[in-house]
Design goal:
Number of helices: 10
Shape: elongated
Helix content: 55-70%
Order of helices and strands: HHEEEEHHHHHHHEEH
Distance between the termini: 40 Å
Largest sheet: 2 strands, antiparallel
Radius of gyration: 22 Å
Strand order of the largest sheet: 1-2
Number of strands: 6
Strand content: 5-15%
Length: 227
């Protein structure tokens, strides 16, 4: 998958220098987004051809792929360089395939990591990841049928990014209690709640988050610590 991005960069670099400054400026912008999907200031964002770095560094790959797809699918190319529209649509399709493969690979590894015996929270996260993959596939199908400019490709990449993040959470938090996960997700919002519990002003509290209802007691909060 990494090689696909590198090939697209080489293909676009072959179009430089362009006769019009506007075209050249937009081509360099696409190249910049694709380079940022490969590495950042800390180094390479890819572990191998099918895996990216975890958490916020891995998210950068999807964010910059989405920006590149948005530029390649822009309807402005119909006026700036109509002869490149077909080439750029194909390149954007390849980037969507990269995003889909990364998210699906992570999802399959998360499912395999649970050993078929996922906990309640892991099942919920996997269900959300599967839903985002389906939404991404639907958007890609619509994007292939509709004319450029509707940003369906960008929305599809966002769905694949969400599926990848949900799968990452499963692999990181499998075996951790639901209360700990909720505290990690909403650490800032829970500081006041935790203080009220420990001080005795509230015996317990119930937090509803995306369909999960977790009761956090004073004992649970004290065990977590550092909130």
């Amino acid at each position: 998958m990494r090689r696909v991005i590198e090939d697209i960069i080489e293909q676009i670099e072959g179009l430089l220098p362009a006769q019009e400054k506007r075209v050249e400026r937009r081509l360099k912008k696409i190249i910049r987004h694709l380079n940022r999907a490969l590495e950042d200031r800390q180094g390479d964002l890819w572990l191998d051809g099918y895996h990216v770095a975890s958490w916020h560094r891995g998210v950068k790959v999807f964010v910059n792929l989405g920006k590149a797809v948005r530029e390649l699918d822009s309807r402005k190319w119909q006026k700036l360089a109509p002869e490149l529209v077909g080439t750029f649509r194909e390149a954007a399709g390849d980037l969507l395939e990269v995003s889909s493969t990364l998210a699906r690979t992570c999802y399959e590894e998360a499912v395999a990591g649970t050993g078929g015996d996922a906990g309640r929270v892991s099942k919920w996260l996997l269900k959300r990841a599967e839903r985002e993959l389906e939404r991404g596939d639907e958007l890609v199908a619509r994007r292939n049928e509709d004319p450029p400019g509707k940003m369906l490709g960008l929305r599809a990449v966002h769905c694949y990014k969400s599926a990848w993040r949900f799968s990452q959470w499963v692999m990181r938090w499998e075996g951790i209690s639901p209360a700990q996960i909720i505290c990690l997700l909403e650490r800032r919002r829970l500081r006041l709640v935790a203080w009220k519990i420990i001080s005795g002003s509230r015996a317990n509290t119930m937090i509803r988050r995306q369909g999960c209802t977790i009761i956090i007691t004073a004992t649970t909060t004290q065990e977590l610590g550092g909130i």
